[in-house]
Amino acid sequence: MSPYFLLSILLGGAYGTAFHIWQGKSVKDVAYYIGAGVIGFGLGQAIANFFAWKLFLIGPIHLLEASLVSWLALFVARWLRI
Predict the structure, then answer these.
(1) Which of 6, 11, 3 is nearest to 56 (CA)?
(2) Which of 20, 16, 31, 17 is nearest to 70 (CA)?
(3) How far is CA 29 from CA 3, 13, 63, 73, in A?
(4) Spatial distance between the Cα atoms of 76 and 57, rounded to a whole number of angstroms
(5) Where do the domains of the chain lie?
(6) Residue 12: what are its φ and ψ, rounded to 5°?
C-alpha cells in the first residue's frame, strides 16, 4: 500500500473522528462519520487532480482541497443523518 494512500485514509479518518467528537450523538455515528470523512477526502483529491490545482501539496496529496471537501462531506452527512 502506498504511503500517500495510507496518509489519505488516516487524514480522512481523523477528520471523521474529530467531527464525531464535536457533533456525534451515539457510538454508531463513529463509523458513519469516519466513512464520510474518508470518502470526502478521496473525492476532494479526485477533484483537485481533475482541475490540476497545486495548493498545499504533500507529495501527490492535495491537502487543502481534499480537507475542505472532507469537511463539507461531514457536514452534509450530519445534515442527512438528522
Answers:
(1) 11
(2) 16
(3) 27, 13, 25, 14
(4) 25
(5) 3-81
(6) -60, -40
**CA pair distance 75, 63, nearest whole angstrom:** 18
Per-residue pLDDT of the chain (82 residues; tens, 9 = 90+): 789 999 999 999 999 999 999 998 888 889 999 999 999 999 999 999 999 988 889 999 999 999 999 999 999 999 998 6
Q: Which three cell numbers stand for residue 73?
A: 462531506
Q: How far apart are CA 44 and CA 24, in angstroms?
A: 23
Say if residues 16 and 36 touch (Cβ distance below 8 Å). yes
Q: Helices 3-23 and 29-51: crossing angle, nearest 10°?
A: 130
Confidence (pTM): 0.91
Q: What is the pLDDT of residues 50-67, one digit of tens each?
A: 999 888 899 999 999 999
